[in-house]
Amino acid sequence: MATLVENVISPPNCPKKRSKEIVQYTPPFTNMLVILNKRSGGWQAVGLERTFCRLAGRSNVLDITEVNDITHLKEQLKHLMGRKDVKVIAGCGDGTISSVFSLLDLLGISAPLAPLALGTGNELSGVTGWGRAYVGESIEDFMDNVDNGRVTPLDRWSVTFRKPPRRGSQDLILNSNGASLEHTENMLCFFSMGFDAEIALKFHYLRESNPSLCANRELNKLYHTVWGAKMLFWGANPVASYIELYVDGKKIDLPPSLGCIQIFNIHSSGSGVDYFGLRQKSNSYDFLHDYSQPSMGDGLLEIIGTEDILHYLQISTYTHGRRIAQGSHIRIKITGNRPLPVQMDGNPWEQEPCEIIITRKDQLKMVLGNRPEEYRGI
Fold it and tell me: What values do phi and psi take at 244, rounded to 5?
């Protein structure tokens, strides 16, 4: 873009005369693609958009919620195609980062990604050394760190949901209206069922009905705390009686007291809680004793069980969750006749009885931040 600059030109023996000179301005980070979600967290991306446009160029900055024409977007970003130094910044929460990678697939861009923590939990940003909340640091310094950051692999997982067929039907794929009974989503961070998903679902409903009440990250965390406190007194519904779990083809007998079952690719949930306890040894309470040290690029998932809110509070301070299994092929059958609260990468919903299959899809690239003391599972 060009910037209009006024200069005072004073040649020898001539009266002072004002003239206008066009100076070409080149943004310092033209190799950066910045993808924002203006709704994430406390709507911080709205205020940062202009800064990113100045530093990366307006054509390199977009809001993922406004993307609707991939062909036009490819034309807009054709100057990035083929460049080997492209880096992607995702200014959003965990739930949007998977969508950002899916958008990059459609655009044909394979580049390392760095998260800017604009969401509520920001688990992926935390474990890769970018911090758990953006609190006004220099965006230019952040982009410089992204440009020079080390790259590490991140597994991406396919999560397939298969609904049971209609009674008397032999077709597992289509129902009588031709609608699919099977669909697949992508997972980067974690999948869970039980009381943690129920709390996340309450917040989701509040944000959808009253967005103005969820415009502050700290207030959003307070909502989660209040609902968790209520559940501490009311108790959490056990989920093991509604679930059958198979890991690498082996059925796992779940303790009946579990109120939450979590499947982790990265070991961070609930604003930084390490349910697995990466630096802790297994104990008699655990099912899993012989395992590979977890990493977000090792092609393995870890399954953890949590009893209730009190157990969660213990995990967040001095112990770890109940280690159940580690494997690369997870199959879950949600039984019964009522929906179960679930969440994936922070996005919650009520899941009707079905079969869920989790397998590794491929491997992506993440840029590591400049806080190595915060790395987890790298």
Answer: -115, 130
DSSP-derived letter for residue 353 is: S
Cα–Cα distance list, 310 to 167, 207, 321 (Å): 41, 26, 12
Q: Are 268 and 320 in contact (CB under 8 A)?
A: no
Q: Are 268 and 252 within 8 A, CB to CB?
A: no
Residue 119 to residue 131: CA distance in whole angstroms: 12
* Mean pLDDT on 355-372: 96
Residue-wise pLDDT for 286-326, tens only, equals 888 889 999 999 999 999 999 887 888 888 888 999 999 99
- Over 60: is that where the pLDDT of 15 sits? no
Give the number of other Cβ atoms within 10 Å of residue 317's Cβ: 8
Residues in Cβ contact with 283 at an 8 Å cutoff, skipping those fewer than 6 apart: none
pTM of the predicted protein model: 0.84
Positive/negative CA dihedral, 283, 287, 290, 295: negative
Residues 6+ apart with CB under 8 A from 330: 245, 246, 247, 263, 301, 303, 356, 357, 358, 359
